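anyone else get weird line breaks when pasting these?? whatever heres mine. first is seq + tokens for prot A
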Amino acid sequence: MANVNWRTINIDLLDPESPANFSTSSLAPAVASVSASEVQNLSSQIKQLLRGGDSEGALRGALENPPYGGDAAAKEVHLATVVEILQSIKQSEMSPMLSRIYGSDGGVEVLDVLMKFLYKGMSHTSQPSSSSARSMSPQSTGFSQIHSRGGGEGGGQAMSVLLSWHEKLVEIAGPGSIVRIMSDRRTM
């Protein structure tokens, strides 16, 4: 018998169904690449719908075409468009609109995309921007003033809108929407 240290043999390599025997890149869904100009064109079309008074159509248009394969600039433009749409919709119209979207074909997926945008928007508005960090003014107390009252540059208002949409969305779509977006590998 040969001197083999049985403890050093990787038995996972011998199992054909082992994760060591397939590429984990196959777990991530393929996404089409999207340029910033395409997102900008879509954004202008969506804003045209919003100006025309079709806020539900604008919201559906923005949510049915998320820029999963876009660069950071394209994703920021689309996020700003979605937040603008959400801010333009009255609070009394939220629940009926979400119910109509939820009841339509593909409504669950559309609302999951909305949940992704809500979380992306919340993380975006909670971080101080680099321009506000440059304009810090030291106070006589020794503390620095990073934001003005209310969160600075409308961040508090945007956060309030996003949180109220989140509340209504969980009411309509349930907590399963949160679980689905947290496990989805496609990011905004």
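and prot B, same format (seq, then tokens)
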Amino acid sequence: MFRNNYDNDAITFSPQGRIFQIEYASEAVKQGSVTVGLCSKTHVVLVALKRNAEDLSSYQKKIIGIDTHLGLSLAGLASDARVLSNFMKRQALASKMTYGRPIPIERIVDQIGDRAQTNTQNYSNRPYGVGLLVAGVDDTGPHLFEFQPSGMTQEMVACAIGARSQMARTYLERNLDAFADCGREDLVTHGLKALKESLSQDRELTVENASVGIVGLSRTEGGKRKVEGFRLYDGEEMAPLLERALEGTTKPEGETEGQGDSMDTS
């Protein structure tokens, strides 16, 4: 598929001011299964729907821990996410070795944004075909950032990316005012309910296809802030979270879920 030869590389603008390769990379994000992020005054929660290519394969990992105070979830090409997550791990380790402190969340997000944007200035490179939700805490509090293939990053209160994510975003918009004062459990409940909204009628959230990542702040007896390290809930650990979140809910109505692309998107 060609559009007047303006989509052969990621460095040429079309007469309308568009870079088609970036738009194609964004389509890869839309093919991936949905992931949701929410941020309150004390915690950040990532919730993801895992996908398996076939019945004989395992479910693709969707949430990755970067450091004790930082993690991410992905939608799109898992291989591209692996490259970016490894880069983030190196940067987080370098910050600890050089400055003796965890890397600030905004700084590491800016670094992957710069790395992605550089790919739009070199003819031999292509954009990353993955979108990320980056969750973490630092001296300024909890943060949730969205990363897009263009290299654009923005801080969010709540966000959903991936296939059928619009339905999850609608739920987040309806309940936006409640998130700031939510505790850890309530934030997870909202995240799982938003994720459930994106499912087709014939699918349910289970311990096999859902995962949750949590990081936040708590208070010690002396009143000092303490970081609750990034924690990934997967497999049977999801059972009590799903039971609490989905108790009394009904299955959402909607069109059947798209099958996605044959490439390795998750």
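btw re prot B: The beta strands are 35-39, 43-49, 63-67, 70-76, 130-138, 141-147, 153-155, 158-161, 210-219, 225-233. The radius of gyration is 19 Å.
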